[in-house]
Structure formats: C-alpha cells, structure tokens
C-alpha cells in the first residue's frame, strides 16, 4: 500500500518537474541528505542493535526491563537526531557543495533551501523507526509499514494543492516549479509528523506508557550501543555509496541525479515488498533462535535464513528480469506524463535496467546480515560492506565515463552482488552451508521461468508498440506475470504452490 502510494506521488512529481528541471535535480539531492541521517540512526541500524536486546528482555515474565530500555533508547535517539538536524540546517551550504559539486548555481541554491526545510524530517523518521522496532518485536508488522503511506499522501496533496493554485497565477514557469518544490518539502515534513502520530498510541499500549530518559545505566542500553556503533559504520558505508552516486550523477549533466532517483524508486519496490518484509519478520525470530535452548541453534538459524532467501528470490528474480527486459515499458507507464518526455523515459529506463542487474543482491543482503545480527556479530557485515563500497565506487566512476548515468547504476549493481556473496560465504562458514540443494533448485526454477516470461513479454511489447504507455505497460507486465506464475506452478516451485493454495483457499472461504 505504501509503495503504490509512493508511485502515485512520483507520478505527480514527474508530471510537474519532469527529469531535467532544476527542482527535479535539487529535490532529489536535498532529500538524499537528511535521509542519510535517518538511515544512519534508524531502520536497519536500530533493528539490528535494538530488537535482539529488547526481544530478550521482553521474553522475561517481568516486562519492566524491556520498558525501561525502550524509554532510554528513545530518549537518546531524540537527542542525537535533534542535534544532527540542527547541525544539518546550519551546514546546509557546505553539505550541498560536497554532495552535489557538479550542480550549477540555480540547482545549488534551491538544494540548500530544500535541505534546510527537510532536515527536521530526519529526527522525526528516527522516532518512527523506534516505533517499528517496538511493534515488530511484538509481532505487529502492518502498522509500522503502512504508516509511511501518510508520508506519501502528504506529499501528493502538497504538490496538487500548490500546482492547482499556481496554475491560475501569471507567474513564470520556473517560479511556479520553484514554489511547488517548496510546498512538497513542507508537505514531506508534515507527512513525517503524521507517520509518527499513528504509531505512538500502539507503542504506548504495548509498553503501558513511555518514559523518556537519558541514561546509559539502564539494563541493555550499553549492549544496544555497542552493537549499534558497528551498524552505524556499516550503514554509513551504504549511505556513503548513495551520496557518492549523487555526487557522480551531478557531473553527468542536467537530469543525472533525477534519473538515478526515478530508477531507484522502481528498484526499491521489490526490495521493500519482498526483501525488507521477509527480513523484518525474520530478525526477531532469528534473534530468538540464536538464544533458544537446544543442541542445534545453528540449524534453526540456517533453516530460517534459507527459507527467507527462497521466498525473497521467488519474487525478486522475476522483478530483476522485468527491470532489465521491460525497463522502458515500466518507466513509461509510471512516469511518462506532463513534463516527463519520451527522452526522459529512455534515460531512466537504461538506468533502471542497470539497477535491475543487482536487484537480487540488494534484496537478500539484509537477510544474510540479519543472521550475523542475531548472533550479536555486527562487525562482519561492516567489513564486507566497506569492501563492497570500494568495488562499487571504483566501477561506478569507470563505467560513468563510458556509459554516463547508467554506468553509475551498473557499478552499484556489481557491488551489491559482491556484498551479498561475501555475506553468504562468511555466514556459511559460521553456521554451515546456508543454502542447500533444494534451495538452489528453487532458485534455478525461478530464474528459468523469469527468463521465459521475459521473452514472452518482450514479444508482446513489440506487438503493442502503438498503445499508450499505461495500457502497454499493463499488457506486457500482465503477460510476464501470468507466464511466470504458470511456469513456476508447473515446475512445482514451493512458493508458487504455496501461493496458489493460499489464493484458492481464500477464494473458497
């Protein structure tokens, strides 16, 4: 639901700003900067360090320790994110110069203004991530992942309201777009407030009240922080990769940064729906498996990670093939409207195809990293991520000189495969071979079925070349999905069979 609304938001964004306008590049760069703080202090880092400790305390009959830990971590997060947000507002010009060095003066000035508006969002999102950690540990998964829908809705409303109001005013087009960008920034901040507002009541009920405190003496706090520091370093590597992509994109000319942003938003859909969702459900259970009594906790970990891998790749392998083979059809259906032209579709489509190559790596690496987190090893993923960053950055710089903006995405994809491969290798050394013959067979079925479905969809795309972007995209993706589902079901892929049984049972009920 959140991702669908996210694409509605991006379609409205594309309608107003296109790909190579000043606000398109400026907003992408400005949003990247506060997002870096958000991702450093929240989401993956908080889940990896906080959930295992909180889950262990919450298993006790007396929940006072878990409640105290939750209040202490929230207090520290609020303080840290507030300080960093204020620093970001003050240092916005310097930060913008560093990460968007290739921007011309109009893009640079608008980016600075947008950064100052958007930076408070970072602190608000950290609080939202704390809510996610609490709710996920208590096996409440829907609310924290549905709440960001309000963030998207607020952005959509802000753009439509500003665009409609300005359409009837005798202002130059550049001034209109400038004001719509400012409205979107303020709407984004308002959406962050709404995102927290719907989650805090549920957390309050689960914790029987929330007591903020700034203390390192509360049981578990030091353990969380000791695990959190390497995770922040690891996330810093990932965020540095994104900032490097933005920096390189700023040197590829107008529309470079924006094209990367449009393609990344499509790429993140299967990662979020299948990679992040499976990992979010798995991490609390992996943490329990790691400390569960019994003779073979490693086998429990291995089996759960292998199951997660199989379920992720069942959906992500076809997503990868679709992004590569049907990139232009997907981009045109989602974005080609208003100021987003056919040429923009061609550029963003080529970037999406390059990102599609690394999709499986991007979607599975967090699952493998969660195996280390469950065993309280947060250092190994950092080391692997740092090495992968060196590989992806070097390749992105080289390939950019040859391929332009798509070269940046291709370097990132190769780095993602290196990252997940090394995670899998080291995890297998620790707990035994994670993926066995049955898991690789399921992967092979998914790959063969996706390739055949891609070939069928490409044929349909050629026949349907005269259709408008949306019906053409719907036709080729529909054929792709039907062929993939039919082939995996015929070849008895476990997840295809399970999905079919679930659908038929639901229809029968």
Which keywords apply here?
509 residues, mainly alpha, 84% helix, 0% strand
Overview of this protein structure:
The protein has 509 residues and is mainly α. The chain has 2 domains: 21-229, no CATH class; 255-497, no CATH class. 84% of the residues lie in helices and 0% in strands. Helix 2 (22-41) packs parallel to helix 6 and helix 3 (44-58) packs parallel to helix 6. It is globular and about 65 Å long. 53% of the residues are buried.
Query: What is the N-to-C succession of helices and strands?
Result: HHHHHHHHHHHHHHHHHHHHH
Structurally, how many domains make up the residues? 2
Oligomer: single chain
Could you tell me the radius of gyration in angstroms?
A: 23 Å
From the N-terminal CA to the C-terminal CA, the straight-line distance is: 24 Å
Poorly predicted runs are none
Number of distinct helices: 21
The profile of the biggest β sheet is: none
Strand portion? under 5%
Question: Which structural class should the secondary elements be placed in?
Answer: mainly alpha
- How many beta strands in the DSSP annotation? 0
* Approximate helicity band: over 70%
What's the helix and strand layout?
Elements (H helix, E strand, L loop, with lengths): L1 H16 L4 H20 L2 H15 L5 H27 L1 H8 L5 H33 L4 H5 L1 H20 L5 H25 L2 H8 L13 H30 L5 H36 L5 H29 L1 H9 L6 H16 L1 H16 L4 H25 L1 H27 L5 H27 L5 H22 L3 H15 L1
